[in-house]
Specification:
Elements: H1 2-16, H2 42-59, H3 66-79, H4 81-105
Helix pairs in contact: 3-4
Length: 106
Amino acid sequence: MANRKTNKYAAAADRAKAPERTVQPAEKVRTEPIRVTLDLAPKQHAKFRRWCNLAAAETGLPAVQMAPVLRLLIERLDQDPELSAEIREGLQRLELETQDARSRRH
């Protein structure tokens, strides 16, 4: 019986001494969509809705939803360096305007 226990302990010790894995498990790739929520000011929403309605009329589509427009814009940002630069400049302007408005309040 002592021999079996010794063998169990020896086997456990051998397992503990096993070399570390050199191959990392493959990362899981997310395939499900990720929900993004966007709050728009009422005027922004009205402008966007109006643009979607005009796009529907001009393309002959029954309706143009906001989500596909945003998806296409994201693709364009990724593919169009000039558009991407314009948006970055706009973000910098917005930040400056926000900082200016905060400084006026204080």
